[in-house]
Amino acid sequence: MRNFLLIARREYVERVRSRMFLFMTIFIPLLMFGVAVVPTLLITRYAGSTKHLVVAAADTATAQLIRNELENPSTSQPASSGSRKSLDREVRTSPLVVEIDANVSPAERDALNEKVRRKDVDGVIWATPDALASRKIDYITREVSDFSDNITIQQRIGAALRRQSLKSKGLSDDDIAKALQPVDLTALSPFGAGAPDAQTTFLAVFLMVMVLYMSTLLYGINVMRAVLEEKTSRIMEVMLSTATAREMMTGKILGVGAVGLTQVAIWTATAAILSNGAAAAWTGALKGVISVKVGIFFPVFFLLGYILYSTLCAAVGSMVNSEQEAQQMQFFVMTPMILAVIVLVNIIQHPGTPLSFWASMFPLTSPLIMFARIALEPTIATWQIVVSLVLLVATIYGCLVLCGRIYRIGVLMYGKKPTLPEIMKWIRCA
Description:
By secondary structure, the protein is mainly α. The chain contains 19 helices and 4 strands. The protein has helices at 2-16, 19-47, 60-71, 81-89, 106-117, 129-134, 147-168, 173-179, 198-232, 235-239, 245-274, 276-286, 292-319, 323-342, 344-349, 354-361, 366-376, 382-410, 420-429, and strands at residues 51-56, 96-101, 123-126, 138-141.
């Protein structure tokens, strides 16, 4: 007991005091902030600039409808709760100022094209009678890759043409507004009005599962590298004179795991301090999603998943002799976890399928999948949770025994990478 606690303390203190720990503690939140916030800030900045468009159409009535729809899309949307939700979900575009040009001759198109080149106008909508009849309208713009604005302009032109078609049938403006009114479909849970919002639940569970995945992957690989570093530097031979191989492996797993928990605690505390204003809003949005049961099982599956994969990574680190060999071997160890993430979206959307059940029972994927099911299925059977945990703990115990035997011999073996028969021999003889 004393030896592996000393090893765990050494691993913890050495890594916490390193510059890499400080760098990663600061860099990863900054990276996440950059990925999540900077694109939004850029979109907001550019969305505030006004675009100047020209609608070239011989039919001035149709051109006016297109102009009205582009400049003020709310005119084609009834002021209902459903339409307001539709507008909230619409792709944001820059404010538009639209000019009508009734000349649709080839010479005028060339002149307008030149204006776009010189940046006198931002775009030209070429709506000739043939283009309107075939519903194939050209949009001349320098920003052909601005998909969000271009799709929104396309949708608004389509709404204007639908309005024009209904007007030609003799419908009044009120009738057209009712015909174009979108349907507001609300998905209701069979567990009552108090059930959490589906989108909030999906995002919250997906975020928490990804934290489980990234933490297990990152710190498991750290254990492997710690073992490999000491093996290649021959420090291992000295340490084995005072501690057993199992004590060393257990100490490294606990020490590196404590480093990971410290880093997560720092991020959580920092986020809580910096988001006082948003904390109340998030608390209200997540109320009912992050239940007491979810809060209990999150650290349980985090620790069990970390111990399982860290044990496997420690065995890999003891077998290989270089970083290149370690990278090749770690892929096979992490494959079940990667497969769990691949099917995660499908399982979150359909938590009651046979795929979800068996993936939550399989010990190498249960840390992610069973946690997702616990968060999403209010009526999940207790026996399924118990069986999943028992299988996971039993697998961890078996891996500790088998990987401990591999570790005991592997840390003292140098030269070529061992073959599978050699590894089996280590397990039998250790």
